[in-house]
Give the backbone structure.
Amino acid sequence: MNAPLIDPFARPITYLRVSVTDRCDFRCVYCMAENMTFLPKKELLTLEELDRVSSAFVRLGVRKLRITGGEPLVRRGIMTYFEAMARHLESGALDELTLTTNGSQLARFAPDLAALGVRRVNVSLDTLDEEKFARVTRWGRLPQVLEGIEAAQKAGIRVKINAVALKGFNEGELFDLQAWCARRDMDLTFIEVMPMGDLGGEDRIGQYWSLKDLRARLAERFTLVDLAERSGGPARYVKLAETGQKIGFITPLTHNFCESCNRVRLTCTGELFMCLGQEDNADLRAPLRAHPGDDAPLESAIRAAIARKPKGHDFDYSRQEVSGQVPRHMSHTGG
Ligand code: SAM
Ligand code: SF4
């Protein structure tokens, strides 16, 4: 009955990323337009529907849940959902419950998250310069995020920093960011900017800073030891021999990571995307709403979707034009 989810390329699906809102208190330039129109509330999965669909995935073998958005911690009542997911940690059905956040609300929520069994969070932070932070996030305030990070660490949650590598923006801060993370015992992952959404005329190619170049610069100062560790996703890790610190590189554009892909993504409206780079998706909200008391149609819809998971994605920057671009915003699909 509850056979695990295996896709047509024999990849077990054990990792679900759930976007719980399209809203955010920031407007990062690479993610959102300044004047975003958000979805009407009725389009969003309710907290109860989020619980039902996430729990169905856990029943079908998902071992890791990452909650994202938009900014997950601005969704009203979100702790109710975290509480619901914590029961799967307690039962042993789930190995990890985690989130990706901009950190702005962490000071408020870190103790509760820790109490519910959240052991690690990813905090997105591209710069340590207050003025530059305000520029890249448009609406964000650096001190608030730094407080959030501190609160998370104090609550015993491990923090990993995710920084989008942006040409001409945080290039000069590479070693400052690395040293700052090392002092706080935080791992650091760099993300190549992806051709998502509509930046209102801003030039994405101009912002693209190849992680190959970033890595080469790190290697001028440190000995990089490749780690075998694989997350099943687009991240590769090295250890800096001199500091022992782990540095990750998320390179969806320059490396093919699809062969080990173990993940699918659920949007806040209940669309399941089987591949970040492809448009094909399955509507899970329809079976959720049509059968409030019965999860069997939902499970069938999930199985049918996984049976369509494609082999790989289509992003390609190689011709210096954005081909394979998908018109979705990261805040919708969940980063
Ligand atoms: N609001 C949360 C945050 O910022 O961490 C979670 C959602 S956000 C969409 C998830 C991640 O996607 C963030 O680390 C963000 O930097 C990254 N992101 C957003 N737009 C991106 C883009 N165009 N290319 C690469 N990464 C992007
Ligand atoms: Fe908000 Fe995260 Fe997108 Fe920035 S990257 S606008 S914090 S969702």
The chain has eleven helices and twelve strands. The longest strand covers residues 158-165. Residues 197-201, 316-327 have pLDDT under 50 and may be disordered. The CA atoms of residues 58 and 93 lie 7 Å apart.
